[in-house]
Design goal:
alpha/beta, Rossmann fold, Alpha-Beta Plaits, 3 domains, five-stranded parallel sheet, four-stranded antiparallel sheet, 15 strands
Amino acid sequence: PSLAHRVARQALADGAPVLVQVPRAGYAPGLACDRCRAPARCAVCSGPLGIAPTPGPGGSRVPACRWCARPAAIFDCPYCSGTKLRASVVGAARTAEELGRAFPGAAVRVSGRGSGVLAAVPPGPALVVATPGAEPVAETGYGAALLLDSWALLGRADLRAGEETLRRWMNAAALVRSASAGGQVVVAADAAHPVVQALVRWDPGWLAARELADRRELGFPPATRMAALSGSAPALADFLEAARLPADADLLGPVPEPPRPGQDGERERYLVRVPRAQGAALAHALAEVQGVRSAKKAPEHVRVQLDPLDLV
């Protein structure tokens, strides 16, 4: 964004380091079909394709599977037959590369998984690209912080996406000099979004109260108790048939579960929801079935999670 560039340029001109927070490590950890935008997956194991931060022989960057590491120099989209890829997610290494071109002459440092976590950066103008939790401390404070790619944090299918995003943003903003000393924070997000409003107000309690009210209305934890059951269709059918669930339990599903590394066969997922007062009864019923299946050495495992953060 032009505002971010302007603020960064001003801080560098004042001789201060600039913190650039990006949600993802790597170079291009997420790829998609350039034609239909479907996520690009490995033809062998169905894992997600990405581009590693370290170039290959001759400086080439060949897409490869993030699960089995097989290269995917040739891509053929199973949905539209497209053959070209685009970066759906930009990582810290790619952001650092682009900033180096946008601000020639400025030092660019990267802190995060893969490149190593920096504990501190010395005074002076520099661009510090870091993933959440890997932000180094600036000895004299940052002149500015740029919080980029907010959609990657706010758009996660996670009950705590909002509060977790605010925590990460506040941690980064706390490293910036005070406003009276010229410090500025730029968020690349919709100003009306509740998480952005909570950051501007510097009031996490306001966001927590709003989140709790929304979860009560929608029937999500902590207003209710939920359990996620994952496994093959036959295993789940046996599990649910044996389970003595509370009378007020709502059974939601099944839905296909996204593939995981090393997974064989298709898996499904159910959600079980009960009033908060019946949480202990739900936990007991599920533990009872798991115990019986374990004693009988059931051939297929059913994964049970209580109050999962990821509901899809």
